Each structure stands twice: as structure tokens, then as C-alpha cells.
Amino acid sequence: MGSPSTPRPGPHPASPPSPSADPHLDATRAYYDEFAARYEDRRGGRDPGGYHDLLDDLEVDFVARYGTGKDVLEVGCGTGLLLSRFQQFARTARGVDLSPGMLERARARGLDVLEGSATSLPFPDASVDVACSFKVLAHVQDISAALTEMARVVRPGGHVLAEFYNPWSFRGLAKRLGPAGAISARTREDAVYTRFDTPAQAAHHLPPSLHLVAARGVRIVTPVAAAMRLPILGEVLRRAEWALCDTPLNRFGGFWIAAARKA
């Protein structure tokens, strides 16, 4: 799943994945390899309502708070949409992902990425200032191992930004009550392991070396993604999400991001 040595800058050649001893990892890799074909269908300015771009903007802005001028690692970088934006303000921006299909698209962007698992990061101890992960940890069964790994690669005084799926939210309610979405003609979202953690549970998962210093809520008041496509309501919701993301109401965000400082 990668080398423990420091990766060289620049794109890395793809290597064919080999079956692991962990069926969960193999299933997750296969899911995202399939998802890669349409992962960007509604992102990167392709969604007329801007829902997915709003999520990305709120996440990128939070990383910039801690990662400007620093060395940033994105755990679960996918096709590199966020990572390419981190490059604009970070000293260095590197990524790791489990899916060769996703990484193929990230490498096409010229990004510095490696194949690897969130629970066994192919980077040395204390090698980055910020380790961040978005929409990835919710699909990791051993969440404590993933957070411990993120803490391991961060230098003392650096930060881990970890995003969780929050059951105390409109999105959490929709996922419980509504049908699973589709990632392809044959596969639905429920084909991959997904966990939901309340903010309190998420904070409890943090290893002892990390101290929670801030949090951001993403998608706090937007009931459904389609609401963002309505001309007036969409703008009201967009402004409200930005106004509320760092307030105590962040605990009701569909995506809850913990910012933790390493001692």
C-alpha cells in the first residue's frame, strides 16, 4: 500500500492493486474505482446549483486557516479536486488514496499522490504540518487507527482536520429515511461501509496526542441538495451556511469537521 520512505515530489506512476488481507479495504477500493468515472459530475463548477461546490469551498477555506504556507497532506484525496486548490496556498500539498481509479485522475492533474490506506499512511512520522480528510473517515471501520495515523504524520504543533458524517443533521435524517443514491447504473451508495458519528463521538475518537481546538459544520440548514438550485432560496442557504459554519450550530452540520492540534 506504499512505502514508509519520504515520497519524491511530482506525480508517481500507477501500480496495479493487489488483493489485501482486509476484505473491507478491497470492497472500499472497488467501490471508489467504480465511482471515479462519475465522481466529478456535479463538482468543480459542474453543478448548476453549486451544492457540491459550496461543500468544497467550506472545506478548502477551513484547511487554508491552518495550512497556508505549510505542508499539507490530504488523506483520501480522490481525484484531486481539493488537493489542487490546497496547492494555491500551501507550501507543499500531497495526497494519498486507496483507489487507483481516483488516483489516475489526480495524477492527470499533475498532483503529488500515492496509493495507500488511511489506517497505514505511507509517510514518515512528523512529516507534515496539516493532515486533513474529507468524506473519507466515514468509510473507515477502524476510525481510531486512521486518526492515530493522521496524528503520527503531523509535526508537533500541527493540526489534524477530520470530517465526520453527523447523524444529528438534515443530511443524517435524509440518509436514514431516504433511498440510497447511485454511483453508477449498477451500484448504490449503500454498497460501501458508512458510519455516522455525533460530534461528541467524533471527539472521543481522537487519540490522546490531539486536542480539539475548533470545529466547522458543513450543510447545517440546507434540507436537501436540490434546494440550492432554487434561485432565491439557494442564495439564502449559501449565505446562511457561511454565516453559521463556525458558530455553536456547527454541531448540526451534515458534515462535522474537527480541528485538533498535536501536542
TrEMBL record:
Q: Which residues form a coiled coil?
A: none
Q: Name the segments for region: Disordered.
A: 1-27
Q: Mind telling me which Gene3D superfamilies this protein's record contains?
A: Vaccinia Virus protein VP39
UniProt keyword annotations, A-Z: Methyltransferase, Transferase
Q: Which residues form the Methyltransferase type domain?
A: 73-161
**GO MF annotations for this entry?**
S-adenosylmethionine-dependent methyltransferase activity
Which GO annotations describe the biological process of this protein? methylation
Pfam families given in the database record: Methyltransf_11
Q: Would the keyword Transferase turn up in this protein's UniProt record?
A: yes
Cite the InterPro entries for this sequence. Methyltransf_11, Methyltransf_Superfamily, SAM-dependent_MTases_sf
Pro residues composition bias: residue spans: 1-20
Q: Which residues cross the membrane?
A: none
Q: Does the keyword Methyltransferase apply?
A: yes
PANTHER family named in the record: METHYLTRANSFERASE, METHYLTRANSFERASE DOMAIN-CONTAINING PROTEIN
Name it.
Methyltransferase type 11
